[in-house]
Amino acid sequence: MGKSLLEQLKAVTVVVADTGDIQAIEAFTPRDATTNPSLITAAAQMPQYQGIVDDTLKGARATLGASASGADVVTLAFDRLAVSFGLKILEIIPGRVSTEVDARLSFDTEATVTKGRELIAQYEAAGIDRKRVLIKIAATWEGIQAAAVLEKEGIHCNLTLLFGLHQAVACAENGITLISPFVGRILDWYKKDTGRDSYTPAEDPGVISVTEIYNYYKKFGYNTEVMGASFRNVGEITELAGSDLLTIAPSLLDELQKTQGELQRKLTVEGAASSSVEKIHVDKATFDRMHAENRMASEKLAEGIDGFAKALVVLEELLANRLAALEA
Asked: Catalytic: which of 10, 58, 115, 136?
């Protein structure tokens, strides 16, 4: 019997689980795992993880004391919950977990730096080496500058909601550890904008974007890792075989595991060296100009930040309701 597409993919790319569902992570044995506000909110509503939510709320209450308001307890528990899930995930995987800074801070460099330090402090207080954590930050100009500060302190970052080469180059020039270009969301935008129902994997705009970024990094010797994210189908994934990492939802991991066939490596350092991509420098003025000119990147970055912010509001409400039930 031949190897599954997932087995073959793991031979050329680091496979990462894109979920807050701990049972799913156990099932697919990825090296790393990523979370985001939407995933944590979804996981927090699953019955099997009620214990993590309850323990986080009880811990926050114990820290603040009986006289603290419910609102203050919820705020502290909210700050701790993503780390609580991250700690559980790190018990399973051998590598790194990505934990996201509050999306509502995406345009505040100083606040993002502060929050990144706080998240790492929570992990280190629990005995986790900071090398096993990636602080996930939206790839705004302000977010990239915050990540640059954190990287100099040995706090590694994952720049997310990345849709354009200008974001990727700015991250590389600022020494960011890893970026997460969003393949599927780019495809979503182009399908809506053009009215096309589908694209073949090779012509998929998201695939083309990540390929360009991968070739740019490898051709010009940047160490920043490329982790394709937000996939809509298996074809997008197989077309990016060879990327440094790919973070994949459990449903697509399952499909890859159940599918036989030969997987061809598409991205290579040798191929990147012969690519036609040209080197550019991205300062703030260049970033702002290129971002404004890229309608897709501008719209999807704003939409992504807004979506994650709304998920956080839902999570805060969920925590408030659960605390009230626990303390009734």
From this structure: 136
pTM of the shown model: 0.95
- In degrees, rounded to 5, the angle at the alpha carbon of residue 116 between the alpha carbons of residues 78 and 292 is 100
Q: Strand ranges (DSSP E) for 139-196?
A: 157-162, 178-181
The alpha carbon of 251 is separated from its chain's Cα centroid by a whole number of angstroms, namely 17
The residue with tokens 């999807």 is 300
- What CATH number should be reported for the domain whose range is 5-326? 3.20.20.70
Nearest CA among 167, 186, 236, 228 for reference residue 194: 186
Q: In whole angstroms, what is the distance from residue 173 CA to residue 286 CA?
A: 13
**CA gap 237, 151 in Å, rounded:** 29
pLDDT digits (tens, 9 = 90+) for 11-52: 999 999 999 999 999 999 899 999 988 989 999 999 999 999
Residue 313's alpha-carbon distances to 78, 86, 133, 308, 318, in angstroms, are 10, 20, 24, 9, 9
* Interstrand relation of 245-248 and 157-162 (parallel, antiparallel or unpaired): unpaired
CB 53 within 8 A of CB 319: yes
Tell me how far apart the alpha carbons of residues 218 and 168 are, in angstroms, rounded to a whole number.
12
Answer yes or no: are the C-beta atoms of 182 and 176 closer than 8 Å.
no
- What secondary structure letter does DSSP report for 130? G
For strand 32-34 and strand 14-18, is the pairing parallel, antiparallel, or unpaired? Answer: parallel
Which DSSP symbol is given to 79? H
In the DSSP assignment, the letter for residue 175 is: T
Tell me: the pLDDT tens digits for 165-189?
Answer: 999 999 999 999 999 999 999 999 9
Give which of 212, 180, 218 is closest to 32, Cα–Cα: 180
- Catalytic: 136? yes
- Strand, coil or helix: what is 39? helix
**295, two tokens:** 């309608």
